[in-house]
Every structure is written in structure tokens, then in C-alpha cells.
Amino acid sequence: MSPVAAALDVSHLPDYAHDWALVDVETSGLVARRDRILSIAVLTLGPEGKPVEEFSTLVDPGCDPGPVHVHGLTTERLRGAPAFDRIAERVGALLRGRVLVAHHAQFDYDFLAHEFARAEVSLPVTRRLCTLALNRRVEPPTDSFSLASLAAHYGVRQTRAHDALDDTRVLAGIFRASLAEAVRLDLALPLVPCPPRQDPRFAPKAPKVPCAYRNPGRLVSGGPLVQGMKIAVTGDTDMARAELVARSVAAGLNVMGSVSRHTSALVANGGSSGAPGSGSAKARRAAYEGVPVLDERAFLALLEDVRPGTPHQKQQPAPPVAEPVPASAPDPAVAAPAAVAAPAAVAAAVAEVPAPRQAAPVRTVQPFGRRRVLVLGGSHEEAAAVRARVVELGGAAAINLSASVTDIVLFPGGERDRRLARVTSMGLPVHEPAWLGSPAPQPAGAPVRRTPSAVVLPRGGVVDLPALPAAGRWHVGASWAAPRADCEIDVVAFVLDEDEQASSDGDFVFYGAPESPDGATRLLCDGPTEQTVTVDLGALPPAAQRIAIAAAIDGTATFGDIGAVQISLAPGSDAPVMTQAALDAATSERTLLLAELYRRGPLWRFRAVGQGYAHGLETLVRGYGIEVA
Q1: In this structure, what are the phi and psi dihedrals at residue 374, rounded to the nearest 5 degrees?
Q2: Mind listing the domains of the chain with CATH numbers?
Q3: At what angle do helices 131-138 and 105-118 cross, to 10 degrees?
Q4: Whose CB has fewer CB within 10 Å in the chain, the N or C terminal residue?
Q5: pLDDT tens-place string over residues 262-299
Q6: How far is Cα 258 from Cα 272, in angstroms, rounded to an integer?
């Protein structure tokens, strides 16, 4: 650890001075709603960075301890340890009034939230900070952002990996050093407000069995039910609702929790205006969309003879790919959802997305091969043009000042940017925009702050994905320059079938429902300007052909006010970024389709989309066949 980090005292800096509670937990698995904490360590620090108190203990989970080969905590070692409800008050006292700090902070926070809920004790955490997210902003020159790599970089000694107490002490050293870098770079800390997630209403619902058949469309008057039809139920039913749903699912129907224009039929006793159920929101929506309405008796009669449907396409496993393969031509299989707004309008909008330029994603030998350029000042359009030119020259566009930035392009107005003082103190070269007309290659021996290994994609660029281990997850991150007081940005994801439609309501992942029912798709909030969608491709249901990831503004601002959105793709939470892109496509728009993971034959591909829409999130959601209250 550097002397400046070890002696760091930020108590006089209001933006960085907080009381901290550094936490590490070892668990029986990775799913907080199901698995349990096996050991926990808490180390508290004051604003001046000095330790205040330390606590650690093993925990009896009352279940199988899971992967012993990872954490070394056998049933015998845990026997006699206290259950979590016996230590909840002690842990809560250490957390109260402090910012929770952890590596993968949402993981530790979610496990604490569920354990506190089981113990019927309130979790006293109102804010958290993730050291992984903090170092993604700092961008130190490390091979990865794992705890071990960061410890080696910052000179912090690690003796027992996956030991909660030792990991917390290592975390303290990494945190102090990272905080020192944040102060040096004048970076805002990625503090995340924490709602009362221990409340049962935040718990994900039990997994729904995915429907194996494609939606054949509306029920025809006098015609049969067909496997794959989307059915909704409203009002009281003579048969128990659970049994009615179970019989429908067993027959191959797709029972939805809401009504949309893609619903095949609504079951409501009476089935006509003024009859029971006609006053419900589902019935009103069915009348508006022209969805057929059946009473329960008629539905049960049709349920006796459900016709065979068309199964979802089965995909062969992809052959191993050693490294990402950039696509050099437009991919006809890739298009924005034809159901958003109106099909013709969306088709026209997609046509505006430029095709990937030949070899543009991998220009590592061009004049900007090792450069990462930050633009200060200018209009959104001027800055966007510069970032596009940087990528064309083989470099990477930055949206924040970090340790990896090598050059600055300064427009009029940029001299008022608070980051310019830090740029000067770091000795970074500052250029006028004309510098991009004929840039000179970096001189031999020029200092390289970080060698970018990520493939830099232009808007519309595509790469093939290599195969991941069975337990692997792809992490698609989205980040932007700075938070605004007049708006919030929500990152969302849609799991779509062959018809560009969500098969169920749970296929819409957003802040209010941050995990799909099968757990394959999750939303992580890493800070006020950074959110991540994780996808386990191997755990997706058979219907899943595409995962669309978008961002929407809740407020008066537009993406022209926000500036570029940077997206990144990594094969793990702390793994090096494999692919990145800076998206400047939207100006006056309030919804932005960021990226897609989609099937292409036996392979999965990733595309940087960058298509903006003037409508809000509600229109986008409905276009994918989902109704959300």
C-alpha cells in the first residue's frame, strides 16, 4: 500500500468523509433468497480512515454449507456456531449510521437483507459502496478487478483468501488506496441508496415454468385453444385459481399476469360487458385491445381439447470460440424490436443504425491504438463527433476522468469543467479538436497508462461470444458521466422470443423486479451512474432468443443532456472488459436501446445498438408485449 493511501485522512473533505462498515460474508451459494451466510466479518472505519471496531464469527446456517472446496467451511466446523438471528443485533449495531462497503457490495447487501428478514430484525443500512464499482471508475492498470488483483496492485498483503476476516482486512487496504485515487482524480463516490430490501415484497417470486411453445395468436371465435396461447385470468373463479392455472400450464398454455395486445384470451366469469370481472383493469385492457373474453365454463370446455402448438426453436450448443470475433458486415438477424411503437416506424429507425465498419472494432495498430480520449466542453453533437472519430482511429472514448485516460480534447467551455484542474495536475496532454484531423502516432516510449485489451465497437458493431464455463455469467454494464438532480436513469432488460416478444411478465427485468423468475437475468445497481445486467445464457428458457438492454430517463432531461452512455461486456463481475462502446446516438430522446445479446445459429452475439426513441419506457415495455402497473 502506498504511504499516501495508508495515511489517508479525508475527514476534511465532505464528499469523501463518512463512517464506514467494511463487510465480507462467506455463503452456502450465490442466491440470497435461497442460500445462507456461513461466516461474516465487519470492520468499522472512521472518516479519517482509522479502524474503530472489528467483529467476526462463523454462522450455523441450518443447511448444507455448499461448495466447501471454495470456502473450506464444513458442517463440522460450523457445528456449535451461532445462528444468524443470535448475532443480528450485534451486526446491526456495527452497521447502523455507517456506509456499508464490500467488494461486490450488492451480493453482501442482499444476503444481509434476507438474513435480517429471517431474523425479523430491521437492517440498518441506508447506503452502500462497492469497491469493485469504485475501481471501475478509477481504472487502475490491473489484469482484473478481483480482490486478489487489486490487493497486488495496491500492495495489500492477502494471507487467507475466502476467509471473511482476512478478506475484510484486505478490503480495508484496497478501500483506503482506492479512496486516495478517487480523491486524486476528483471522482464522485458511487454511493447507492438502499431501500428496505428485507421487506418480503422485494423478494423474487417463485420460478415460473417457461412455456415451451410459441404464441399462435388470438383465440378465434368458435376455434380451439392452441398450445402457447397467452391466457390471463381476472376476477373470482369457481375453481381454485391455483388449480385453474396449473391445469392451463399442464395443457401447454402460457398464463400471464397481465393483458396486452398479444394476449390470446382473457378468462372472466360472464365474459361480457357488465358481467363479473368487466370492471377489472385486465378486462378494461382486453376491451381496449379487442382480446377475446371467455367465461370460466367455456374455457374449461376448451381446455379439454388443446391443439398441439409449435415448439420454440431448439439451439445446438455453440462450438468453443477462443476469442471474440468481430463481425465485419451488417447482420441481417439483428434488428430493434418491430413491436415498439409501430413496426414501420421502428424498422425505419433501425435502418438509421450504421453497419459496423470493416475492422473498426479492432484497430489496435492505428494512430490511437493505445489512447483513451476524454472530451471536455462543446455541445453534445461536437463531443459525439470527436468520440466517433477516436473510435474510427482505433482508440477508445472515455466518458469520465480515470487513471486510464491518455489524452484530452478541449472545446470552448471545457475550461470551466472542474476536471480540468485534475487533468493539469496529472500532466495529461490537452488538444484542440483539429488535432483529430491528422493525429500523430504516439511516440515510441510514450507512457502507457493502461493497455486496452477490450474490443472497441462503433455504434452497430457486433462480436461473437466465446463459450463460458457452466456457471459463467455475462455482465453488460452501462455508465454515464454524472448524476443529475432533475432525473433518474433506469437500465432495464427484456428476455425475448423468436417473435421479439416477452414470453411472460417476469421476462421484464427492472428496478422493481431486479431478477427474472428463473434467475438467469439480473439487474445490479453499482452506483448512481452505473448499472449492470447479468445474463446466464445457459440458464435461459428455450424461448429466449434475444436479451434487449435499454435505458430510460425518468424526469425532464434527455440523453442529449446526459451525454454519452458507455456500455461494456465482461465474462464476469471482476473480469477484464472484453468489449466496450460509447453510445452518443440519442439527443432529444428519453429512451435508448443500448445493446443486445442474441442467438445467431449455434452462437450468441453481442451488438452495441445505440438507438434512441422519443417515447418513454412504458411504450417500449408495451411494445414487447408486457403490461406493468
Answers
A1: -110, 135
A2: 3-202 (3.30.420.10), 230-303 (3.40.50.10190), 325-356+457-623 (2.60.60.30), 365-436 (3.40.50.10190)
A3: 160
A4: C
A5: 899 999 985 444 454 456 888 888 998 899 999 999 99
A6: 18
